[in-house]
Give the backbone structure.
Amino acid sequence: MLVLLLFNSNATITIKQIQTETEMSLEIIHDVLCDLSEKKIIVCDEFENLNRRKSSIRLTKDFQSTKMHVKLCVPFNCSEGTKNNDKKFAIQALIIRIMKTKGTLFIESLIDEVMTEMNQPNENIIRNCIDRLIEQEYLERDSRRSNLLHYLL
């Protein structure tokens, strides 16, 4: 765990130091520290006041375990699929916002606007999002020019 690695440089650390070094939220730090304290891996001087950022924490010098591996509670992490879906929804929302203001726009200029606002996402993902919005009937292609899009109210 990242928190345990911080003890390589210091024998005693504070919650504030953990937060600045790891950039984790206080809730996650509190959960991790409670789990480490439960397993008697660390000792907190003021365990009741763990929410205080000045509480000092140190490793237990005589920690021993009968097990080869100590199982620690790992915070929930989002899967890559969830992150990709969130990104697609954000791109779709941006496309809708742009098309609401413009009304009619060429596909290439829409892709350029999305790429400048979203810090260079993949062009294929943007095209897939446009196709998805056409399927959902938020957008439609022009009957004469296939590269022209119209926003449907």
The chain is about 45% helix and 15% strand.
